[in-house]
Amino acid sequence: MVSRLLALAPLLSPVALGQRSELGATDFIRFGCSQLVIERADPLVSPGLNPSPHTHQIVGGNAFNITMDPAHLDPAQTATCTSCIYTEDNSNYWTASLYFRSPENGTFKRVPQMANGRLNGTLLEQEGGLTVYYMRPFSGTNKKTVAFKPGFRMFAGDPALRTKAGTYPGICHRCLSAAERITGGSGAPCDRNDTPELPNKPCPGGIRATVIFPSCWDGVNLDSPDHRSHVAYAPTSPALAGDKCPASHPVRIPQVMYEIMFNTTQFNNPEYWKDGKQPLVYSFGDPTGYGAHGDYLFGWKGDALQRGMDALGKDCGSEDCTRVLKIQSGKDAIACTKPQQAKEDVGTGTWLKELPGGMPITYS
């Protein structure tokens, strides 16, 4: 059954943006991507491994496979559909799934994703998924950005982290009030209203997770062995990029950001959250949230992304870039799915005795 789930959901609505001088609604493209598949696959970190160690939700182009070898596959040309609202975007975006661990018997159930809302306060019909942003600098005078090239990929976060020490500036969680159920919370992401760890109390409106990628590139390498070294965060404003880049990574690229809305409300029994403990765990065995991360693989057709970024402030901004980019209906985005490459129960509406793949829970 198709749920009323996220698509063009305004984390940074014009109202919120108007309250913060450093942000502007014309400084980003924002759109929703429906769920392509939930499976243990990770062609960036574990290429060729089927299944990979932990569960992800993948969105974007249906060319996604366990290798995504750029020497033999260009998703922009190979995909026949995309679960994203803009049809020229065959990129793939994926994040770890979140699970509820029953304090009563230790079994696991996957936490479903939910919608944010449009600017008019309504929800779109879209199955699972996440919201994607492509941002240019919110401050400074030079806002020119250079779109990614075919074969480009990157990684944000560190799944090994279990403490606040060394956490990434663009990885955070927000505990939403009931009134924020549709808006997703106002203001900039990863500010004082957010925490790098998972919330330690029931959240009446669910949990918003944010993953912000680097905004500077070395200008040479489309990838690196750790999938991080070829990119860098801006030195002056690492979470939301300013207009400066370090000399080692002088090329300013669109800053990609994900927001994932987890519907944790069915697990809000106060008995599950006693003494500041929380019952949630990421699919890679992280009960803290510090290890949250995201993977990105570029797949826009031709110069579509560059056209969109160049049009910001003129014919493109926030949720409306339709004068520059081709758009499809939510129904068509939902219809773009693919079967698991290694079929298994990932705990969608069912209880599992262990995390998929037997992933152990680790606290350090």
From TrEMBL:
<feature type="signal peptide">
    <location>
        <begin position="1"/>
        <end position="18"/>
    </location>
</feature>
<keyword id="KW-0732">Signal</keyword>
<feature type="domain" description="DUF1996">
    <location>
        <begin position="42"/>
        <end position="300"/>
    </location>
</feature>
<protein>
    <recommendedName>
        <fullName>DUF1996 domain-containing protein</fullName>
    </recommendedName>
</protein>
<dbReference type="Pfam" id="PF09362">
    <property type="entry name" value="DUF1996"/>
</dbReference>
<dbReference type="InterPro" id="IPR018535">
    <property type="entry name" value="DUF1996"/>
</dbReference>
